[in-house]
Amino acid sequence: MRFRHLTPSSRIRITPYSELIDAQGATSFTSYNNTLLATSFKSVNEVYWHLRRHVQLWDVSCEKQVEIVGVDAARLVQLMTPRDLSRAEVGQCLYVPLVDDSGGLINDPIVLKLAEDRFWLSISDSDVLLWAKGLAIGFSLDVLVFEPDVCPLAVQGPKAETLMALLFGDGVSELKHFQFSFFEFKGYPLLIARSGWRKQGGFEIYLDNIELAGILWESLWQCGEPLEVQAGCPNLIERIEGGLLSYGSDFNNRDNPLECRFEKYCDIDNVSTFIGRESLIKQRDVGITRRLMGVSFSGDPCLPLEKRLGVFDGSFPIGYVTSAVWSPSLKNNIGFVMINKSHWDIGTDVKIEVAGGREEGCIKDPPFLVPPL
Amino acid sequence: MRFRHLTPSSRIRITPYSELIDAQGATSFTSYNNTLLATSFKSVNEVYWHLRRHVQLWDVSCEKQVEIVGVDAARLVQLMTPRDLSRAEVGQCLYVPLVDDSGGLINDPIVLKLAEDRFWLSISDSDVLLWAKGLAIGFSLDVLVFEPDVCPLAVQGPKAETLMALLFGDGVSELKHFQFSFFEFKGYPLLIARSGWRKQGGFEIYLDNIELAGILWESLWQCGEPLEVQAGCPNLIERIEGGLLSYGSDFNNRDNPLECRFEKYCDIDNVSTFIGRESLIKQRDVGITRRLMGVSFSGDPCLPLEKRLGVFDGSFPIGYVTSAVWSPSLKNNIGFVMINKSHWDIGTDVKIEVAGGREEGCIKDPPFLVPPL
């Protein structure tokens, strides 16, 4: 694997936690929403096993918020997605694929409904701010659209609930999955959600008072010491095992939600107002010709992909692998594959083109591993 | 300076030139429009002096194009900018600041007018595609907005014209600054502009036939051997010396074009239709309170900034440095500073907060160095 240095630049924002993350030995980073995101600490494997057993703090400040507030806020949010939000409740988090006029995926934020007329879109890696603003202006909607200064900190792993309860009281335990509420910290209300970019349960603290970042981290660290707390980051192995897709890697605006198996977030018939509806109806009626599935494949442990891998039936290209990793639990390479209809059935054998030649692959239905919780 | 590895990820696109750039010893990279951009090769100083004397090939595939085509194309482009485009001609390149409804800067692309109803916006680092699409949909404009597969290759340095003429014929020499035309290469028409993110003159080849990338690079390399051609990249030293701003580093959507001294691109009175006009008129009438200026400062050679540096008058904060670098030509640290009105006059002394303490700074009027051409 080729090593590249990431050039320091004020264009890629450091976060209120960057120094703390550095001190914990983060070695490798990415730029996500033009913000630094650590991606590994020392040994990837050690961090993976630690995450499955204990509790970690993740600096996910790169999950930027797009705030939409005003009389037409709910209308604008619904314009952007085929998911029916009419019954969404204040205090709820919702996974919401956003599509453009041709049905292409623009982002897949978690929407936090803060009030009937106020939402945060906790975004993946594209400028939803510009999309939402462009629509608001074009449609003359009565809303404000802006990026508040929020730096989420994730507390993840099987002991996350224990740690959170130590610091914020037993109330946090009552939060259901994908619910949020406010909890006091040093006299200041913090928005805390039971959520996180993983499958084993955890919390995200949407810190909007950056002054508190250091003391929040320190307090979590102290409470977490008996629980063997460590610094961590969204874990590639664990996310692929858990079947979690990553915008930009696994799908982008050239893919639609039907191809990405987001049917359960596509209330195409009930929601009459969203942009891209006509395109998605056409796609559904004509039928899609490829689908994002799981794949396992043989060979040496796979390193993080720098580009997509070709998938073949003999010499015939039938798709591409979007992300892949070696699973220490399954002792196999696993990943996601955008695969043609002819080969998308579970159990189909395919060939994967890797640097050294071709490996034997098999189409799977993620998640690859269901956590014990 | 802390070294960070850039994590390989299919979310950050490699380019048709990445392997060639790697082979030439690129060491440090950034993610720009979710695309790999090399930022240094071996010694930064050597590359700098080479650029000032010879000719370099830069992989600037990260300069993505947003194509806007259709009956309402000119109307949409004009909606996005205060610059008067009514007299723009086909074949012209124009530097065009884009602003949002509050006058905040969204991007500063080079607009290429391909036809009366067809434009490319060659963008800096933000998703103009989403902004343009959102507006087009909201205003029901009769346009297509999409990202064509174009990978610009820059040929830069004082010998660029000689090299380009060797490969494409003397016709390229007739291109005026910020003009483009089509030149045949292997039977295929290539869009070539006299432009580039630097001040010493050069060309950009907007390659839209990716299959030709390897042979194009190879041909330029062979023709360039007697001219001492090397691989290079947008050069931080040279861009700051030349007074060129970088979106995301030096300004962003919290800054407006008056603060950034883009007055000559702001035909606020003549252009009645652009978004943000009311805000900019208000800003102009009330008067701005800070401005993006140059600054020189004492101390050890400055490394690329990871975050903005505070600027002070005694203990009183009066601004911040957005980018800075050691100039080997001027033997001084130079950079850009967003500075309050009280201190924005050229020649004003200020204090710059650096890691080791405070340095003596002086407000300047860029460019710092005017190239001999």
What does this structure look like?
The structure is a homodimer of 373-residue chains. Helix content of chain A is 19%, strand content 33%. Chain A has 373 residues and is of the alpha+beta class. Chain A has three domains: 18-63 and 150-240, Probable tRNA modification gtpase trme, domain 1 (Gyrase A, domain 2, 2-Layer Sandwich), CATH 3.30.1360.120; 65-135 and 256-286, Alpha-Beta Plaits; 289-368, Beta Barrel (Elongation Factor Tu (Ef-tu), domain 3). In chain A, the strands form five sheets. Chain A has a six-stranded mixed beta sheet, sandwiched between helices. In chain A, strands 17-20-19-18-21-22 form a six-stranded antiparallel barrel. A five-stranded antiparallel beta sheet of chain A has the order 6-9-10-5-11, covered by helices on one side. In chain A, β19 and β20 form a beta hairpin. Chain A starts with a strand and ends in a 9-residue tail after the last strand. The model of chain A has no long low-confidence stretch (mean pLDDT 95). The interface between A and B is large, with 58 and 58 residues. β1 (5-6) of chain A pairs parallel with β2 of chain B.
